[in-house]
Amino acid sequence: MATAQNRKKRPVIVAESNFLSARLMMASLQSIGFSVVVARNGDEVVRLIGAYRCELLILNMNFGRPSGLELLRLLKVRQETIPVMVITAVGQAEMKAAAGAMGVRAFFDLPFVPEELCKRVTELVGAP
Amino acid sequence: MNTATLLWLIELAILCYFALINTIYFVFTIVAFFDLLSFDRRSRRRGFGDVLSGTTFRPISILIPAHNEEATIVSSVHSVLELGYPEFEVIVINDGSTDDTLRLLQESFSLFPVTDTTRPQLKTSPIRRIYRALDHPNLIVLDKERGGKSDALNAGINVSTYPLFCAIDADSLISSDALLRIARPFVEDDRIVAAGGVVRVLNGSVIERDRVVASRAPKKMIHLCQSIEYIRGFLTGRTALARLNSLLIISGAFGLFLKKGVVDAGGYHSGTVCEDMELIVRLHRVAHEKGGPGRVIFVPDPVLWTQVPSDYRSLMRQRDRWQRGLIESLLIHFKMFMNPKYGAVGLIGFPFYLLFEAIGPVIEMFGYLLLPALWLFHRLDARFAMLFFALAVLYNIMLSLLALIVDDLLFQRYERAYDLVKMMLAAFIEFIGYRQLLTLRRAGAFITILFRRGHWGRIRRERMQDQAATV
Amino acid sequence: MTTNDPRAFAITEEALRFIAGGVIALTAVVLALTLVVIVHHIVTDRQRRRNRSRFETASMLLAPHLVNNSPSLDDAVSVARGKAGDRAVGLVLRRARYDLKGPIVDRITEILVSTGEVKKLLTEAKSRRDWRRAGAVRGLGECGGAQAREALIAAAADDVSSEVRRAAREGLLSDGAQEAVHAAVRSFIADLPRRSGWRRSFYARLAGVAPDQLTELIRSGELKGAEEKLAIEALGDAGRPVALVLAMERIGSAEAEMRATAVRVIGKVATDREVPVVIEALNDPEWFVRAAAARSIEWMATLNAATTHHNWQQDACEKLVKHMTDSSWWVRANAARALSRCGNAGVQMLLIASQSQDRYARDAAIAALATAPLQPEVRLEIKKRIDALIEQSQPSIPAPRPKELFA
C-alpha cells in the first residue's frame, strides 16, 4: 500500500513556463498532500522524468521549447508511460486534437478553480 | 581648367558624398530609434491572453534547402521541429547531395516515400522522390536533382500547403518565439508580402542544445566587426526604409513570405547571383504593375542567429557575392529607377540603393586611395585630410556607436555590460583595416559586373525573360 | 584651394566645414552618451533582475493563500508588499486573477482596490499618450471591480485611439460582468475592426466569457457573411452547447461555406444524436464540406468526450473508406486521418486501403498510418509493409492542385 512516505518520492511535474501559474498549481496540489516539482522548459521535464518515478505530468501546451506537442512526441518515442494532463486555454480545440492524437486523454482548462484541479488529479492518479 | 582646380573639385565631390550619405544614415537612425521605441512600448504592454498564445495565427511552411549538409542536417531539422509554433510543416529539400544527407535523414526520421500528387506552380528541375516521416506528420523531405538554391526553394514552394513560407539556412538558430513574432503582422495586415527579421551573429554566444542561452560579444576581431556591421545595418537602413516601403533587402537568412505573392511573381529566379535580393525587388515591381500585396516590412523583435564567416577569404567572397547580387538585381529591374509608377520604391528606395549601396563603395574606395596618392605627390592639403577624416571616418564611427546605443537602450540583448563595452571599442577598430578591405572588395564587385561578359549576359537574359512575362 | 574659386564652390566648402564641425561636436555627444548608456545598462540589468526576484518572492508568498482563499490572504499581502514591493504584488495579484476562477477572483479585486493599484491605473488611464492609456486600460481589465469597469466602458466607447478602444474591450471581456460584456460588444460593432485577426480573437474571447451574448449577437443578424461563421466557430471552439443548436439550424443551408462551418462546429460539440448528421455530410456535393465532415469525424472520435465511445465508429469507418477514392485530395487525406483515429477498426481499414489498386487511396492511407496512435510493434509491422510497397510504386499522374483552405 502506498504510504504517505512512499508517495513523497513520486512527484507530480508541473510543466509551465509562467512562474506564478506554476506556483498556483503547485500550491493547490501541495495543499492536499502531493509532492510537486516545477519544470520551466522541456529539458527539465525530460531530466525529471529520468530522475524520478513521476506520478503525473501536467503540461501547458504553450510551453517554450520544445513545444508542448514535440515534448509529447519525445515522450512517446522514449516510450514513457507517465500519465499526462494537458492544460489549454479556452478555444484551443486544434491543440487538444493534436494532443489527443498523441494519446492524451486528460484535459484541463484555464482559468481554473484549485479544488477542481485537485479533484481531477486525484481522479487520475489516486489520493495523495 | 588646371589640375589644381580639378583636384579640388574631386575632393569636394568626395566630401559631399560622405557628408550626404552619413547624414542620411544619421537621420535614419534617429527615425529608427523613435519607431522602435513606440513598437517596444506597444509590445511590452500587451495583455496576457494575446496572439502569442496562439488563438490567431497563420500556418507556415518552413523550407530547408540542403546540399551536402550531412554534418548538421539532422540536428537542424530536429531543432526546427521543436519550434513552438501552433501549426507548421517542415520541408527539407535535398538538392542533389552527393554525400550522406539523404540517408541520414531517412534513418533518423523513418522516412517512407509517397506519391507526388502536386501540380507544380513553379518550374524546377525534376524531383526524384517525396518522403514523409513516420513519427513526424509535419515533416516532408524532397529528393531532387541538383538545381541550386533557388530551384530547391521553388520545389519546396510547390509542395507546401500553407499560405506563408519561411526559408531557413541549415546553420542558423531561430529563437522559439521568433516565428510567432515575425508571423504576427501577416495576421493583422493582408497587404504584406514579405517580412524580414533581425539577424545577429551567433559566433561567440553561449549555446545549449540549439538555443542561445546567453548572448555574448564575439571573441575574434573578424566576428566582432561583422557583428557591429549587422547591428548598424539594421538600424541605419531597415527600419526607416521599411517605413517608406522602400525596403529592397531583407535578410535571405530570415524572411517570411506570402506564398501567393511569390508564386504570382514567378518564384525565385535561378539566373541571379543573390536570389533573395532579386526576389524582393521583383515582388515590389509585380505589386505595382499588377496590384496585389506589396508591403515589405521589417519586424524588429524576432531574432535569428547565424554563423558568419571566420576567415577573411570566405568573408570577402560573401560580400562580393552580395554586392554583385545587389547590382544585378538593380540593373535587371532598372525600369523602376525614378519611375513614379513604382511609388516610393522607385523614387526613394531604388535611387538610395543604387547611389549609396551599389556605387557607394567605388566612391569610398576612391577617397581612401586618394589620400595616400596625394601625399605621395606632395599635393595633400591638410584641410582636405581633416575634413575627410571628420566626414568619412569619424562620422561613421559615431554612427556605429549610435547604433549600439539605440540597440542597447531598446533591446538590451547583451546581459553583461562587458560585452557592450567590447562592442563599442570594436566600433573604432572596425575602421582600421576591416572596413577598407570590405570596401575594396565591394568596389571590385562593381567593376566586375561592368566589365565581365558573363554578368551582362545574365542580366540581359533576365530582362528579356521579364519583358516576355509582362507582355 | 585658391582664392579665386567660384562662389558656389566656396559656399560648398564652408558648408562642408560646418558639417564637419557638427560631426565633431556630435561625436563628443555620442561618446558621452555611450558612457551614459553603459551605466544605464548596468542599472537596468540590475533592476530587471531585482524585479524578477521580487515577482518570484511575491508569488511564493502568496500562492498558498490564493489557492485556498484563506482569511489570512490580506495579511499575506501586507507581508508580501513589505518584502517584495507594491509593484510585484500588484503584478502577482493581477496574473492570479487571470489564472483562477471562483470567489477568489472578487477577493483579489477587493485587495487591488484597497492597495491603491486600481487608483494608480485609473490615473494612468487619463494619460495623454496612447500607449500609456492602452496599457492602463488593459491593467484595469485585469483588476476588475466597479470603478475599473466604469472607466473601461467609457474608454471602449469614447477613446480617440482605436488601440485603446481595443484594449478596453479586452479588459471588459476579462471583467466578465454582463454590462461590461455588453459594452464591449457595442463598442466592437461600432468599430468592427478591419483586421480579421482581431475580430477572430474577439469572438474567441467572447465565446469563452459570455457565450449567450455572442449567441444573441449572432441571432440579431448584425453579423453578416464571414463574421457569422467566425462567431459560430468561436462558440464551437469554446465547446459551448449553444453552438450545436446554431450549427444544426444551418446544416442544410444553401450556402456551402455555411454548411462546412456547421459541420466543423458540430464535430466539436456533438452528442450521439448528431453523429449521423455529420456522417451524412460526407455525401455533400462540395468537396470542402466533405473534407470538413471527415475532419469532424476525427474530432468526434478523439476530442469530443460525448462521442468518443465506439458505437458509431464502425458505421463511420465503412463510409469513410469509400471516400478514400474521392476526387479531392483534402477529402482523401482527412478521411484517412479520421480512420486512423477510429481505433482498431479504422486501422484495419487503412491497412487494407494501403494495398488498394487506387494509387491515391494507397498514398493517403500510408500517410495516415504514419500519424495513427499505434503500439510500437504494430508500427514496426506497418513500416515493413511500407518498405515492401516502395518497390512497387511508379510515377503518378499529377492531380489537380487542391484549393487551400486558408486563402
Structural summary, described in words:
The complex is a heterotrimer of chains A (128), B (471) and C (407). In chain A, 46% of the residues lie in helices and 19% in strands. With 128 residues, chain A is α/β, with parallel strands linked by helices. Chain A has a single domain (7-119), classed as Rossmann fold (3-Layer(aba) Sandwich), CATH 3.40.50. A five-stranded parallel sheet of chain A has the order 2-1-3-4-5, with helices on both faces. The mean pLDDT of chain A is 81. Chain B is of the alpha/beta class. Chain B has two domains: 1-38 and 176-464, no CATH class; 60-162, Spore Coat Polysaccharide Biosynthesis Protein SpsA, Chain A (Alpha-Beta Complex). Helices cover 55% and strands 16% of the residues of chain B. Chain B has helices at 3-44, 73-81, 101-109, 149-159, 178-188, 221-243, 259-264, 275-290, 312-332, 343-358, 360-376, 382-411, 417-429, 434-451, 453-470, and strands at residues 60-66, 88-95, 111-114, 127-133, 139-144, 164-168, 172-174, 192-201, 206-208, 211-214, 254-258, 295-306. By secondary structure, chain C is mainly alpha-helical. Chain C has a domain at 245-394: Leucine-rich Repeat Variant, CATH 1.25.10. Helix content of chain C is 75%, strand content 0%. Chains in contact: A-B, A-C, B-C. The interface between A and B is medium-sized, with 17 and 17 residues.
CATH topology of the domain at 245-394 in chain C, which one?
Leucine-rich Repeat Variant
Share of helix of chain B, binned: 55-70%
Q: Largest sheet of chain B, described in full? A: 10 strands, mixed
Backbone shape of chain B: globular
Q: Give the helix level of chain C as a range of percent.
A: over 70%
Radius of gyration of chain B: 23 Å
Q: Name the CATH superfamily classification of the domain at 245-394 in chain C.
A: Leucine-rich Repeat Variant
Total strand segments of chain B: 12
What is the oligomeric state here? heterotrimer
Number of helices of chain C: 21
CATH architecture group name of the domain at 245-394 in chain C = Alpha Horseshoe
Q: Any idea what the shape of chain C is? A: extended
Mean pLDDT of chain B: 84
Q: Biggest chain pair contact, residues each?
A: B-C, 70 and 71 residues
Average of per-residue pLDDT values of chain C = 82
Residue share in β-strands of chain B: 15-25%
